[in-house]
Amino acid sequence: MKYDILVIGAGASGLMAAYSAASAAADEGKSLRVCILEKMPRPGRKIMITGKGRCNFTNVKDWNSFSAHIRSGAKFLRPAFYSLPPERLIDFFARHGMESVVERGDRAFPASHRSADVVDALVRACHGLGVVIQTEAEVTSIECTEARGFRVLMADGSAHLCQKLIVATGGLSYPATGSTGDGLRWAGAMGHSVTALFPSLTALVPRGYKDRSAQSGMAEGALPRHIPRETPPTELGQKFCGICLKNVGARLIIQGNEAESGFGDIDFTDGGIEGPLGFQLSRKAVKALVNGSRVALELDLKPGVSLTELTTRVKELWEEIARDPRSLRIREKERCRILLGKLMPWELIPAFTATHPEIITLERRGRADTKVWVNLVSIAKALKEWRFDIDGYVGWERAVITAGGISLDDVVPKTLESRIVPGLHFCGEALDLDADTGGYNLQIAFATGFLAGQKAAAATCD
Hints:
This protein has 3 domains: about 1-200 and about 400-460, 3-Layer(bba) Sandwich (FAD/NAD(P)-binding domain), CATH 3.50.50; about 200-305 and about 385-395, Beta Barrel (Elongation Factor Tu (Ef-tu), domain 3), CATH 2.40.30; about 305-380, no CATH class. It is built from 14 helices and 22 strands. It has helices spanning about 10-25, 45-50, 65, 75-85, 85-95, 115-130, 180-190, 235-240, 275-290, 305-325, 330-340, 350-355, 375-385, 440-460, and strands spanning about 1-10, 35, 60, 70, 100-105, 105-110, 130-135, 140-145, 150-155, 160-165, 200, 205, 245-255, 255-270, 275, 295-300, 360-365, 370-375, 385-395, 400-405, 425, 435. The strands form 6 sheets. Strands 1, 2, 7, 8, 9, 10 and 21 form a 7-stranded mixed sheet that branches. A 6-stranded antiparallel sheet has the order 12-19-16-13-14-15.
């Protein structure tokens, strides 16, 4: 089959690239043969699981605020961002039957909170312009032809020819959705540099959280310190699972020095420490772990007050409990539990006490006489500096995105065309572009896909 433009990968960036190419040609009064090749049975598999099925598809911040959340390649992204800024993306979805709502943190979702609506709108937009979407169409290799085009070889033995080729195959995260690094291998084989790859926006696993004895051997190609998601939690890990902490502070400590800090929400899951704040800190944490550095996370459960103020408050609460007539016959350990219940969610108390044995001191005064002391200063300090030494991280199997990718030095930012192979464009997660959680990464995917498709079509129509 011969096409004007082939797109490999029917994810967020690939679907948008195909739509953009066909749309740009239609605006010029021309018709291009555009086809998407997708190896999975359905397009948009990764979109479907984004945001726990709700799909936070963009963030409506302006460029200055948006770019502060980009971890790699902010300057490179600027032309793509302005080619399809968030407000135009929201308008695109509205024109194709999907209304949006904007929630806390400037995050945009489908009004239905169904990720399937995002995929349906993209597919509808493509089909409306005559784009062909071939599923279960696995590409095995790419060849450059003598006519300055491309031959795309398929797993079934067939081949497709095209003038322009857009690689939108994603990175390595969530391989079950089809992201297995194919595009990165093809890019490398054609002379492009690929920067170091590691999981980002993933769970950090504290020491003692997972039963490492139940973990099978390291899989081939796995990065150091990878702890598979399916590794069962220990008894201690089970005390944490399901707990969500709102509005807490966190500090990432690498080799004894603070590397990053933040404020927000933390979730403890069967994977480890997650949630928006946990994900934000995971990028630097994973990179440091892969490089063999010591990593720790310190949580501040009371970020609004100083340690001195909190210590005073803890002592006041302790005195109030002691004055309460109901406390007369209650042992010190139970009084301590009541105190902790006034300082944190009740469900957090077992995990807090298990990781801070220093808050209770036993003084043996005789063979049958033991005094229990509750260390109020230690409680206050633990609330402000709850330290977790990080043992590892959950890998590609559940990492939201891939950090690293095709070197931006090899790609023209205004066209997303390769500097090495004319007519070859890249977009989405295959590029060395990544950002924080909160809709930023999908906006990057849509914007780079839009620009790649637009410029590929413009060059084809000339």
